């Protein structure tokens, strides 16, 4: 079976053609990608300390695809989890379709606010438990073990009706014109209850609208856009601007941002002939949040360096883990009460020439038939407070909650 690449389609068509369980979708401010079917799967069973091995696997699978008659440049698409001890989901699709960016402006009001399903909601951990976790993180920072640790929480939503993943994807795309909207099929797994008797499998999808580009590569050009330091938006314009100004001048948030920028720049330098790192961050916003942002750009030292190689060298950044990274990761494993899975991992693509784009998997949910797991995290540094980090994670839940048709009242 030969794969094919199609480019003469509209971005709206690609969004409309997305199908749960069989498609990979990624919309950025520059392009839209829909990949369907599976031509080949990249073996990635647990690759801690074996990043070169996964790169070798990807290279071989892409070479094999080209030898078997793939049309155009074959690509790998998929998702990589936060913890390298767990397998990634990377495939060469059977069909790839590209288009320009989605025309968000003309869509206002076209996708209705369907009545939300009735959901049972369970926070994991509870708000009080999360504040206790932040206290633990602050204690480790005060002891001098850490400069920063990112601590997360989740919401488990259960519905009596099957989740309409394509509709949620459209809702996220419409409200995320400046970011990266994605849907990636995850490996099937047996239902822990029904599976014992019937072997019933469930569709799993990683779905989200991330504001953060981990890294992109085109030829010798490399760009990373780390975000760190956040504040919730306000519907009142004056208050919204006040919050933006307060974020930009916040010593605590500027410190948190500087830690991330230093780590990203240090990770990219060995690959680059030149690297430009702005001295000052800028402000960007989504519908729900303000963020401190820095665009780091450079020229690679060799065209053989791939976007996936760069992404693996960067992942996980202090924006989603902390610093020093090994100690922060260990603290997360000891403090957090749930397994992150693909949350704070990465989603994206890489072609056989090494070009590609990888997005940080935040503002996302894992959807599984009748349930969703929503995730949100906050960077804990000196000056953080448990109540402040709880409020920040609550604000970050709004991206997914609004797409579902719920509001933050369910968090109370």
Care to describe what's here?
- With 412 residues, the chain is α+β, with helices and mostly antiparallel strands.
- The chain contains 10 helices and 23 strands.
- 30% of the residues lie in helices and 33% in strands.
- The strands form 3 sheets. Strands 1, 2, 3, 7, 8, 9, 10, 11, 19, 22 and 23 form an 11-stranded mixed beta sheet that branches.
- β22 (364-368) and β23 form a beta hairpin.
Low-confidence stretches: 190-199
Helix content: 25-40%
Q: N-to-C terminal Cα separation, in Å?
A: 53 Å
- Helical element count? 10
Structural class, judged by helices and strands? alpha+beta
What's the β-strand tally? 23
Rg from alpha-carbon coordinates:
20 Å
General form: globular
Largest sheet: 11 strands, mixed
Mean pLDDT: 89
How much of the residues is beta strand, in percent? 25-35%
GO molecular function, one term: isochorismate synthase activity
Keywords: Isomerase
Enzyme class: isomerase
GO biological process, one term: salicylic acid biosynthetic process
Features:
eleven-stranded mixed beta sheet; 10 helices; alpha+beta; globular; nine-stranded antiparallel beta sheet; 412 residues; single chain
Task: Summarize it.
Its EC number is 5.4.4.2. It catalyses: chorismate = isochorismate. This protein is α+β, with helices and mostly antiparallel strands and 412 residues long.
């Amino acid at each position: 079976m030969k794969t094919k690449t199609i480019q003469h389609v509209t971005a709206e068509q690609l969004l409309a053609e997305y199908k749960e369980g069989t498609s990979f979708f990624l919309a950025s401010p520059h392009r839209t990608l829909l990949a369907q079917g599976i031509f080949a799967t990249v073996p990635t069973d647990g690759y801690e300390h074996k990043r070169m091995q996964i790169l070798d696997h990807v290279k071989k699978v892409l070479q094999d695809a080209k030898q078997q008659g793939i049309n155009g440049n074959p690509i790998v698409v998929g998702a990589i989890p936060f913890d390298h001890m767990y397998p990634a989901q990377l495939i060469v699709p059977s069909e790839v379709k590209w288009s320009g960016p989605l025309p968000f402006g003309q869509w206002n009001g076209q996708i209705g606010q369907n009545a939300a399903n009735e959901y049972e909601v369970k926070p994991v951990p509870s708000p009080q438990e999360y504040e206790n976790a932040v206290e633990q993180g602050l204690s480790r920072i005060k002891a001098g073990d850490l400069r920063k640790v990112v601590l997360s929480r989740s919401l488990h939503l259960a519905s009596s009706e099957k989740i309409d993943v394509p509709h949620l994807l459209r809702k996220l795309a419409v409200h995320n014109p400046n970011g990266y909207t994605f849907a990636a099929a995850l490996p099937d797994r047996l239902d822990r209850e029904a599976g014992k008797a019937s072997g019933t499998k469930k569709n799993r999808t990683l779905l989200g609208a991330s504001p953060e580009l981990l890294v992109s590569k085109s030829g010798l050009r490399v760009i990373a856009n780390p975000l760190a330091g956040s504040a919730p938006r306000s519907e009142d314009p004056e208050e919204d601007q006040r919050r933006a100004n307060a974020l930009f001048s916040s010593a605590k948030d500027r410190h948190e941002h500087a830690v991330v920028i230093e780590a990203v720049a240090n990770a990219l330098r060995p690959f680059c002939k030149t690297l430009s790192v702005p001295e000052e961050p800028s402000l960007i916003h989504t519908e729900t949040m303000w963020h401190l942002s820095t665009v780091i750009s450079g020229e690679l030292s060799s065209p053989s360096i791939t976007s996936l190689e760069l992404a693996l060298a960067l992942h996980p950044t202090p924006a989603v883990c902390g610093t020093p990274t090994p100690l922060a990761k260990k603290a997360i494993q000891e403090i957090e009460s749930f397994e992150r899975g693909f949350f704070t991992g990465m989603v994206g693509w890489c072609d056989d020439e090494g070009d590609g784009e990888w997005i940080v998997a935040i503002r996302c949910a894992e959807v599984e038939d009748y349930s969703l797991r929503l995730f949100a995290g906050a960077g804990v540094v000196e000056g953080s407070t448990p109540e402040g980090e709880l409020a920040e994670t609550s604000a970050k839940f709004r991206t997914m909650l609004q797409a579902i048709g719920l509001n933050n009242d369910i968090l109370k």
